[in-house]
Amino acid sequence: MTSLKRNLAAVLALILLVWVSFLAVSYVISVTVFYTLEHYPRDIVLSVLRVVIGLSIAGAWIIGWYALTKIWLYKVLLK
Amino acid sequence: MLEVLAAFLAALLSTPIAIRIGKALKIEGVDVHKPWRPRVPKTGGLALIAGSSLAILIYIVGSHGDSAAAALLISSLIAASIGLVEDVREEIDPRLKPLLLILAALPILFLGTFTPRPVIPFLGRSRLYKVYPVMILLAYPIVCNAVNSLDVLNGSMIATSAPFFAMSAVIFYLRGDYPSMIFSLIMLASLLAILPYNRYPAKVFLGNSGSLFTGAAMASIAIIGRIEIAAIITLLPQIMNEMHVIFSLGGIKSAKQAKSRPVEIENGKLKASRDKSAPITLLRMLCAEVLVDERQAVRAMAFLASFTALLGLITDLVFVEGFL
Q: ipTM for the complex?
């Protein structure tokens, strides 16, 4: 039975997932991108690698969030 | 706390005046979710601005020129003036608007009312002397547009913004940061004073001036009061809504450019569009496969915002407060 409560519960579950993943991603960005930009470590290769890894994870998180929302909407809610 | 009372009374008393101004100057918008499509003045933001600004000015005078309060006021007024131009004239180019909203970040930067040492969960206090100012510049366009994007139903902007100010007031109270708590309560009082006029069936819309003013106040309070992480989490519904609209429209575009509306009206109730070209919005998700009354939808959005405010509060208490 489709209802507003079911939809609300589904969105709450999605937001819970986003909250947990945000905590992890904010940590990763801090120790990779922010650390490199603030402290200019001497090893350039390692610095570039840190920034690339950090930005890749942040980008993947945003794309994953959007993909998850699309699945939530089209495969679960509008099924 | 005199400021909070002043904010409430000034906003409450100036709303009927704002409605009259809107009607007289024909600054009106169509309430598209009503079958009879009434024209509603979109000048409620003026009452919000009047109430909050008066209260913050009282605080500035009482505190002999508190720079944080001045930064909060000027930032919010800059954002509100951009919104007012849109309300009175026409929508600003959606690609230009974020650039204009960066101007709202300048008072905080020039008055130096920020601490570039945010506490990051699992990491503790960081030192972001170079990155933090850039993040401030980005924060205003993101938050202002995100708050604006949820101003879609009668009372929805107030219902989704009030939990932010309640959450921040609780954190500031527990921390003993009373100036920041007063800022949050001023905004909360102003919003609640206008709610009787903005809730279903709305006698006035807050307009872009109201939503951008609120968004800038949120960003300013988060920066001044050092609740950055809690603020981001509390604003997840707004950020999610705005981000998904941008992604589903394929760039920063006006919602009017969308081929199909996210929500349709059926028997006076809201129903999510099944059209895959329609923007993905929070309201569309809530209305999927069910006819929803506008008031029910606003209550659901308020519940979501309260839930994320609680998550923000928990995050702050568990991961942040011990490191400040």
A: 0.91
Chain A residues whose beta carbon lies within 8 Å of the beta carbon of residue B287:
4, 7
Q: Does A65 touch chain B (CB under 8 A)?
A: yes
Pairing of strands B119-120, B39-41: unpaired
User: Which of B214, B191, B253, B213 shows the shortest CA–CA distance to B82?
Assistant: B213
Q: Angle at which helices B156-175 and B131-149 pack, to 10 degrees?
A: 140
Q: Which residue type does B310 have?
A: L
A66 interface with B at CB cutoff 8 Å: yes
Q: What is the pTM of this model?
A: 0.94
Question: Does the CB of B123 have a partner CB in chain A at under 8 Å?
Answer: yes
Beta bridge partners of B269: B266
Q: B85 exposed, middle or buried (CB, 10 Å; 0-12, 13-18, 19+)? A: middle
Contact B127/A8, CB-based, under 8 Å?
Answer: no
- Give residue-wise pLDDT tens across range A30-70: 999 998 888 877 888 989 999 999 999 999 999 999 999 99
